[in-house]
Amino acid sequence: MSEVDDECRDDVHLWNEPHIRVETTLAILKPDAFEHHDTIEDVILTNGFTIIHEKSIQMSPEQVTEFYVKNSDPTYTSDMVKFYSSGISRVLLLARKNAVQRWLTIIGPKNTYIAKETHPKSLRARFGTDDLRNAVHGSENLEVAKREIAYFFSNRILEPLVTEKGMKNYLARLVNFTLIQGLKELCYVKPSNPMTWLADWLLEHNPNKPDVNPSIYYVQ
Questions:
Q1: Transmembrane residues, as ranges (predicted)?
Q2: Active-site residue among 37, 53, 137, 205?
């Protein structure tokens, strides 16, 4: 087989070094943004998140207080308690690569006025009203995310979806060699329907497929 194109070779090389960190984080669509939850969830999915679990709740003042006290949030105020308990919120457990930071970027600065100036396309700029009614909440970091997820989804056992090391080892052990060979062959052949071609090639060259002798058959 001749050498693959340089561009194709670069794409194939990416499979040798997967650097993927899949995280989970908590998102809350606050009462002021609940009516827009379909639109906001579309934004979430468009940005590559998986919604693992979700629920709509109206928190009591006691629940709001417990949630913020448990997470030692310095922004906790009595006005916040009244606001959170004033209507229905949508709580979502999200997952994707670098989920915590990506979600914080999408929602924008906590202060809606600042968000409208500096990040006009952010969710807080689009759906927030003021510093208190800022539409959405996001976990500040991984440790906070773990606590917040445990608070709202206490009955859900969350195993790590995948770690970078685990994914790298899994791909290196069972996937990379065969897949890279298939991708090289794909670049060489350049079929009109590359996805179907690659799927067929992988089935044919699967090193773990059963060894079936077609000449053997059973007569009942």
A1: none
A2: 137
Alpha-carbon dihedral angle through residues 99, 107, 27, 25, given to the nearest 10 degrees = 20
Return the domain boundaries, the chain: 6-17+166-204, 22-161
CB atoms within 10 A of CB 15: 15
Sort residue 160 into left (φ over 0), alpha (ψ -120 to 50) or beta: beta
Amino acid at residue number 70: K
How many beta carbons lie within 10 A of that of residue 149, not counting itself? 21
Is there a catalytic annotation at residue 137?
Answer: yes
**Higher per-residue pLDDT: 10 or 171:** 171
Burial 91-123 (b: 16+ CB within 10 A, else e): bbbbbbeebbebbbebbbbbbbebbbeebeebb
- Tell the burial category of 180 from Cβ atoms under 10 Å away from its Cβ (0-12, 13-18, 19+): middle
Highest mean pLDDT: which of 1-10, 159-168, 209-218?
A: 159-168
* CB 85, CB 66: distance < 8 Å: no
Give this prediction's pTM.
0.64
pLDDT number for residue 176: 85
Phi and psi for 7 in degrees, rounded to 5?
-65, -45
- 22-161: CATH architecture: 2-Layer Sandwich (3.30)
- Which tokens in the block code for residue 17? 């070094």
pLDDT at 217 over 50: no
